[in-house]
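Co-fold these.
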Amino acid sequence: MPQYPQVLFKNRKPNRVATLDEYRESGGYQALEKFVGGGISPKEIIRLVGESGLLGRGGAGFPAGKKWASVPDSAAFPRYLVANGDEMEPGTFKDRMLLHVDPHCVIEGMILSGYSFSGSKAFFFVRPSYESSSVIFERELEYARQAGFLGNNILGTDFSFDIVVHRSGGRYICGEGSALLNAIMGKRPNPTKPPPYPTEKGLWDKPTVVNNVETLANVPHILRNGPEWFKELAATPHGAGMKLYCISGKVNVPGTVELPIGTRLSEIIDEHCGGMAPGSEFKACLPGGASTRFMTRKHYDIPMDFDDLKAIGNRLGTAAVMVFDHKTCLVGATLNLMEFFARESCGWCTPCREGLPYMRDLLWRIENGEGKEEFIPNLRTLCKEVWNSYCALAPGAAEPVISLLDLFEGEVREHISQKGCPFHAKADH
Amino acid sequence: MLPDALKLKLEKMIAEAESPREKAIDVMFEIQELQGWMSDEAMVEAAALLGMTPLELEELATFYDYIYRSPVGKYVIKVCDSTLCWMEGHQRVIDYVSARAGVPMGGTSPDGLFTLLPVCCIGYCDRAPAMVINKRVYGKLSPEKIDRILDKLANKAEFHESE
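Predicted complex below.
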């Protein structure tokens, strides 16, 4: 199996969390000492992270440096940072791993990010099923405060910054940037459409930067080793950095692996996940979580990077690779995904609230032997209509459906003509 | 209604926030820790502490999966029914838990110990099928493992599982 340098996972230990001392021994908090302790201009951090080509790891792939730079110099104070650790997209569990491997890497990244736009407080937003991560994180925050890395007058400078854990009540929509801000403010977490952008008017109308946990964890490493080093980590010439891929489904060893961004799907599955599970053949995967498109064997060798997936009309998303085998009914899988999206719709806007249950109903009927030919064009129309919704939840929900119809129309038609699921007798679920 | 000690704790928590209602979920979690669910009386008291109307708090209480507006058992078992757990036989887990704990989906066992609910992806897809009980997650479930977990909980002992 090809071996790569580990950056985010370099302190990974079997069954325990890396300590503050272990993180420091591996070079941790050096970037904080150099940039914050040394009084280097925040603009320099933004420049270096911008040059590194770090793209947001939460799904949208927005350049991290550009986001920080979009906080206007003249903007009001206080300014807030939100680390988005909601991670409720089915198939995605990389941020949980990161918090259980090396929490100080996230903490240092958050402080440096806050310094870059003169923030003073950060919220670490986390879902209820990650309570163990919250407990670890709160404990380690306290150690960071005791060491003088966090809190008032960090490293004796006049920069003060603190981090609090904000526990969610548990809904997928809270991971959406604008809904997330409403959730923190104790309002119903409906998404809102920009402008104004949160970097101008976010939490309590103050400038707020929302970053994914993995994005933030990359920052100390970039600042310590330089943007060129970060770029060269990638497997593709256009990519930058390492990536946490979380692989689940019908592979031998599911889990999270840190690989150069742009590592080929074939290598990820065959080498790093021990190949397909016994008796399973690769049929398709969702390359980046529940709101990406099914990808067949045709693209088995694709470099798993933002640009390469975009080039085939797909998305890297959260790099949560969900692997389906030849015995899995993809109508059933898509129905399950739609159950998720329909249930998790916040209900604020009509196309999503009404459209997703309608799609679920059509898929349910196809899967359960009540399908009709006209459901196929109906589903295609609905996939377009849900783009009229407020946020990206419903368009994301349409992605697996549209790719089911494009790539597996035969399988869908078989359900309709046979009046039932052809996998039902064969499958074990 | 709310014990004074809890009220003091909640007031302190709220005072540390940027704005009171930021702590709405934490306040409801604390109350549920004590009495299991959010009764109408608790909603009124919590809303007053948070500077919200009971209706504004209701808007949040009914929105979130982990806030309960009806009585629940001591242990709320939520079996994940999203894609990876579906693929690994989540229905078998639901059926087994239901039979073993003597509780239908959505119901609470007569002894008040267990409530069974569905939940969407809990982020343990590498350990499917998985479930969450109160806020602790259990993965790679088999009938034997479910037996061990439920037995321990029924005997008021913690079932520990390494990450």
